[in-house]
């Protein structure tokens, strides 16, 4: 299978080999990653390979990152462009945001989770933009019958984010969360979504948007932690042509792009006082003033904010403005972490296997019972994002369509074994027996010990046999006897 046929392609342009390697490690589970050391090498690759997103270092031999991305904008305009810099040359980059059409600016040292999420969002934005451009063209040039068909396609796209489509168990704590969010969606109130990173806050925010009267309008996402203060005004409010060096045309800001729809401000708890003041002013006045504009521009948006921080505590510590907190928290919704939603793991895992399997060209991929029990026994500190990455790894490493426990990473196998040994998974296969004859209970305990040891050693029979004081033949005999031989 050629993974480049199913995964979005990313080009990393950086003259430092260790930086290339670090970004490849961060991105290669979700993307096909190409690398280049300078503009010439990158240009040659782009001539023969389409890519979704370019990550380009600002300081390189020859052309700077901004200068190269300006050329990319002219020759490959559909590519999403991101510049990375560890220097204070923000003036050149600010000018290049419009000139080179830069989607995002990332400061060094970058954080792997933030980099991965930024690139994911960029790739999704490119896919959605292409789809919307095509649909818009069809709407403007088609007959009434075709326009009706296209409108139906848009309705189907919105239904993807329906509350009923959010995977969860029958008695999930998310039922109450979704019920409350659905009731709130119909009213034009600000919403603050709280919860750990990767727990599904953006999914809830999108569902609120599409269930609201604004559902036909844009849904614009901004990762607040990723915006340097030097870029705030242009990013949030836009700018007018000629307002600064490199501003060759008008550029709408975040709130203007979301006019009539919803702005989702992710990681609002990480923002600086300058950011908080500017957002508060927009919420209070309902208007923005683009950089270089003579008068403010009215905007009509709904704001949904999210954070993994305790904002009340940050208000108490003087790190977050109290007036902005009360503006944002018209309604607060807390998404529980995955470890508190054990009943959700199975349906989410099965859905992810289907989705990831389709992406990787393995549409028949399934989880066997032991693999599912292993997933349900791990606490998932990284929540759904970590679960998705683990399943993507397992699908890629599995020899057949059936995913087995030994394809999971060591931390998941250890986590599952630890929970079972401590009695926290009493309703799973590794729990201690509470009934039966002495012989039956001893067999059950022996089965539990064998399975726990095999899981911990990732089904390496030699290592497991050595730990248990058995020969490989003896271990294999016991595995056959207790039905553990796959």
UniProtKB/TrEMBL annotation:
GO terms for biological process: phosphorelay signal transduction system; regulation of DNA-templated transcription. Keywords: ATP-binding, DNA-binding, Nucleotide-binding, Phosphoprotein, Transcription, Transcription regulation. The modification 4-aspartylphosphate is found at residue 57. Residues 9-123 form the Response regulatory domain. Residues 167-396 form the Sigma-54 factor interaction domain. InterPro entries: AAA+_ATPase, AAA_lid_NorR, CheY-like_superfamily, Homeodomain-like_sf, HTH_Fis, P-loop_NTPase, Sig_transdc_resp-reg_receiver, Sigma_54_int. CDD domains: AAA (cd00009), REC_HupR (cd17596). Gene3D superfamilies: 1.10.8.60, 3.40.50.2300, Homeodomain-like, P-loop containing nucleotide triphosphate hydrolases. GO terms for molecular function: ATP binding; sequence-specific DNA binding. The keyword Transcription applies. Transmembrane segments: none annotated. This is Two component, sigma54 specific, transcriptional regulator, Fis family. It comes from Polaromonas naphthalenivorans (strain CJ2). The lineage of its organism: Bacteria, Pseudomonadati, Pseudomonadota, Betaproteobacteria, Burkholderiales.
